[in-house]
Protein backbone atom coordinates (compact mmCIF):
# COMPACT_ATOMS: atom_id res chain seq x y z
CA UNK A 1 0.00 0.00 0.00
CA UNK A 2 2.83 2.42 0.84
CA UNK A 3 4.43 1.88 -2.57
CA UNK A 4 1.12 2.72 -4.25
CA UNK A 5 0.75 5.92 -2.21
CA UNK A 6 4.31 6.92 -3.10
CA UNK A 7 3.59 6.22 -6.77
CA UNK A 8 0.50 8.43 -6.57
CA UNK A 9 2.69 11.14 -5.04
CA UNK A 10 5.08 10.78 -7.97
CA UNK A 11 2.23 11.15 -10.43
CA UNK A 12 1.18 14.33 -8.59
CA UNK A 13 4.71 15.72 -8.92
CA UNK A 14 4.69 14.72 -12.60
CA UNK A 15 1.41 16.61 -13.07
CA UNK A 16 2.91 19.76 -11.52
CA UNK A 17 6.07 19.53 -13.63
CA UNK A 18 3.99 18.88 -16.75
CA UNK A 19 1.74 21.89 -16.09
CA UNK A 20 4.74 24.17 -15.56
CA UNK A 21 6.49 22.84 -18.65
CA UNK A 22 3.29 23.17 -20.71
CA UNK A 23 2.91 26.81 -19.66
CA UNK A 24 6.49 27.39 -20.73
CA UNK A 25 6.10 25.74 -24.12
CA UNK A 26 2.49 26.51 -25.03
CA UNK A 27 2.09 29.97 -23.48
CA UNK A 28 5.72 30.98 -24.11
CA UNK A 29 6.17 31.93 -20.46
CA UNK A 30 9.76 31.37 -19.53
CA UNK A 31 10.23 30.65 -15.83
CA UNK A 32 11.99 33.23 -13.69
CA UNK A 33 14.81 32.16 -11.32
CA UNK A 34 12.41 31.70 -8.39
CA UNK A 35 10.11 29.66 -10.65
CA UNK A 36 13.07 27.45 -11.58
CA UNK A 37 13.92 26.97 -7.91
CA UNK A 38 10.34 25.89 -7.25
CA UNK A 39 10.47 23.39 -10.13
CA UNK A 40 13.73 22.07 -8.73
CA UNK A 41 12.10 21.59 -5.34
CA UNK A 42 9.17 19.73 -6.87
CA UNK A 43 11.68 17.41 -8.55
CA UNK A 44 13.55 17.05 -5.24
CA UNK A 45 10.24 16.31 -3.54
CA UNK A 46 10.11 13.17 -5.71
CA UNK A 47 13.39 11.77 -4.34
CA UNK A 48 11.76 10.33 -1.20
CA UNK A 49 8.98 8.50 -3.05
CA UNK A 50 11.47 7.20 -5.63
CA UNK A 51 13.61 5.74 -2.84
CA UNK A 52 10.50 4.35 -1.15
CA UNK A 53 9.41 2.65 -4.38
CA UNK A 54 12.86 1.17 -4.91
CA UNK A 55 13.92 0.22 -1.38
CA UNK A 56 10.71 0.30 0.62
CA UNK A 57 9.43 3.03 2.94
CA UNK A 58 11.89 4.62 5.34
CA UNK A 59 11.46 7.68 7.55
CA UNK A 60 14.70 9.08 6.13
CA UNK A 61 13.25 8.95 2.60
CA UNK A 62 10.22 10.92 3.74
CA UNK A 63 12.55 13.36 5.51
CA UNK A 64 14.28 14.16 2.21
CA UNK A 65 10.91 15.04 0.71
CA UNK A 66 9.98 17.12 3.75
CA UNK A 67 13.17 19.15 3.38
CA UNK A 68 12.44 19.70 -0.32
CA UNK A 69 8.84 20.72 0.45
CA UNK A 70 10.00 23.14 3.16
CA UNK A 71 12.53 24.74 0.80
CA UNK A 72 9.92 24.95 -1.96
CA UNK A 73 7.48 26.49 0.49
CA UNK A 74 10.09 29.13 1.34
CA UNK A 75 10.86 29.90 -2.32
CA UNK A 76 7.20 30.18 -3.31
CA UNK A 77 6.43 32.28 -0.21
CA UNK A 78 9.22 34.65 -1.27
CA UNK A 79 7.69 35.01 -4.71
CA UNK A 80 4.18 35.53 -3.34
CA UNK A 81 5.54 38.27 -1.06
CA UNK A 82 7.24 39.95 -4.03
CA UNK A 83 3.84 40.35 -5.71
CA UNK A 84 1.54 40.93 -2.75
CA UNK A 85 1.20 44.69 -3.06
CA UNK A 86 -2.14 46.01 -4.36
CA UNK A 87 -1.97 46.74 -8.06
CA UNK A 88 0.88 44.29 -8.70
CA UNK A 89 -0.19 42.12 -11.63
CA UNK A 90 2.12 39.30 -10.56
CA UNK A 91 4.42 37.26 -12.76
CA UNK A 92 2.98 35.20 -15.59
CA UNK A 93 -0.59 34.24 -16.25
CA UNK A 94 -2.95 32.85 -13.67
CA UNK A 95 -4.33 29.32 -13.55
CA UNK A 96 -7.64 28.87 -11.75
CA UNK A 97 -7.34 32.47 -10.58
CA UNK A 98 -3.92 31.96 -8.96
CA UNK A 99 -0.41 32.50 -10.27
CA UNK A 100 1.76 29.42 -10.53
CA UNK A 101 3.89 30.42 -7.54
CA UNK A 102 0.77 30.71 -5.37
CA UNK A 103 -0.34 27.27 -6.51
CA UNK A 104 3.18 26.03 -5.77
CA UNK A 105 2.94 27.45 -2.24
CA UNK A 106 -0.33 25.56 -1.75
CA UNK A 107 1.18 22.42 -3.28
CA UNK A 108 4.21 22.49 -0.99
CA UNK A 109 1.99 23.08 2.06
CA UNK A 110 -0.20 20.12 1.06
CA UNK A 111 2.92 17.98 0.53
CA UNK A 112 4.21 18.82 4.01
CA UNK A 113 0.89 17.87 5.60
CA UNK A 114 0.53 14.65 3.58
CA UNK A 115 4.08 13.50 4.26
CA UNK A 116 3.64 14.20 7.98
CA UNK A 117 0.36 12.25 7.91
CA UNK A 118 1.86 9.24 6.14
CA UNK A 119 4.67 9.16 8.71
CA UNK A 120 2.01 8.41 11.35
CA UNK A 121 1.54 4.92 9.91
CA UNK A 122 4.37 2.99 11.56
CA UNK A 123 3.48 -0.42 10.10
CA UNK A 124 4.88 0.57 6.71
CA UNK A 125 8.35 0.65 8.27
CA UNK A 126 8.19 -2.83 9.81
CA UNK A 127 10.46 -5.32 8.08
CA UNK A 128 11.04 -8.92 8.93
CA UNK A 129 14.80 -8.71 9.29
CA UNK A 130 15.45 -7.31 5.80
CA UNK A 131 17.40 -4.08 6.01
CA UNK A 132 17.28 -1.92 2.85
CA UNK A 133 16.54 -4.86 0.56
CA UNK A 134 15.27 -3.72 -2.82
CA UNK A 135 11.56 -4.21 -3.35
CA UNK A 136 10.00 -5.24 -6.63
CA UNK A 137 7.89 -2.22 -7.63
CA UNK A 138 4.87 -2.78 -9.79
CA UNK A 139 4.59 -1.32 -13.27
CA UNK A 140 2.38 1.53 -11.98
CA UNK A 141 5.11 2.68 -9.59
CA UNK A 142 7.96 2.09 -12.03
CA UNK A 143 6.23 4.19 -14.69
CA UNK A 144 5.75 7.00 -12.14
CA UNK A 145 9.46 6.98 -11.30
CA UNK A 146 10.54 7.15 -14.95
CA UNK A 147 7.94 9.80 -15.77
CA UNK A 148 9.29 12.12 -13.05
CA UNK A 149 12.88 11.44 -14.11
CA UNK A 150 12.05 12.22 -17.75
CA UNK A 151 10.17 15.43 -16.87
CA UNK A 152 13.02 16.53 -14.62
CA UNK A 153 15.53 15.91 -17.42
CA UNK A 154 13.39 17.92 -19.86
CA UNK A 155 13.17 20.78 -17.36
CA UNK A 156 16.94 20.72 -16.85
CA UNK A 157 17.48 20.84 -20.63
CA UNK A 158 15.03 23.73 -21.07
CA UNK A 159 16.66 25.60 -18.19
CA UNK A 160 20.05 25.20 -19.86
CA UNK A 161 18.58 26.54 -23.10
CA UNK A 162 16.96 29.44 -21.23
CA UNK A 163 19.84 30.48 -19.01
CA UNK A 164 22.88 29.14 -20.77
CA UNK A 165 25.81 28.66 -18.45
CA UNK A 166 25.32 31.93 -16.57
CA UNK A 167 22.78 33.42 -14.25
CA UNK A 168 19.18 33.37 -15.43
CA UNK A 169 17.51 36.64 -16.34
CA UNK A 170 15.04 38.05 -13.79
CA UNK A 171 12.37 38.42 -16.46
CA UNK A 172 13.41 36.07 -19.26
CA UNK A 173 12.02 36.70 -22.73
CA UNK A 174 13.98 34.21 -24.86
CA UNK A 175 16.24 31.20 -24.71
CA UNK A 176 19.83 32.35 -24.18
CA UNK A 177 21.51 29.43 -25.94
CA UNK A 178 19.17 29.56 -28.91
CA UNK A 179 19.76 33.30 -29.23
CA UNK A 180 23.51 32.80 -29.42
CA UNK A 181 23.17 30.28 -32.23
CA UNK A 182 21.14 32.68 -34.39
SSE blueprint and pairings:
Blueprint: H1 2-26, H2 33-45, H3 47-55, H4 59-82, E1 94-95, E2 98-99, H5 100-118, H6 139-163, H7 176-181
Antiparallel strand pairs: 1-2
Describe this structure in words.
The chain is mainly alpha-helical and 182 residues long. Helices cover 66% and strands 2% of the residues. The protein has a two-stranded antiparallel ribbon with strand order 1-2. The protein starts with a helix and ends with a helix. The mean pLDDT is 91.
Could you name the key traits of this structure?
single chain; 182 residues; mainly alpha; two-stranded antiparallel ribbon; 7 helices; 66% helix
Structural class: mainly alpha
Model regions low in confidence, pLDDT < 50 over at least 5 residues:
none
Rg is 18 Å
Give the strand order of the largest sheet, numbering strands 1, 2, ... along the chain.
1-2
**Alpha plus pi helix count:** 7
State mean pLDDT (0 to 100 scale). 91
> What is the percent of helical residues?
55-70%
Shape: globular
Q: Sheet bearing the most strands, described?
A: 2 strands, antiparallel
Strand composition percent = under 5%
**How far apart, in Å, are the first and last alpha carbons?**
52 Å
Structure summary, number of beta strands: 2
N-to-C SSE string, H for helix and E for strand:
HHHHEEHHH
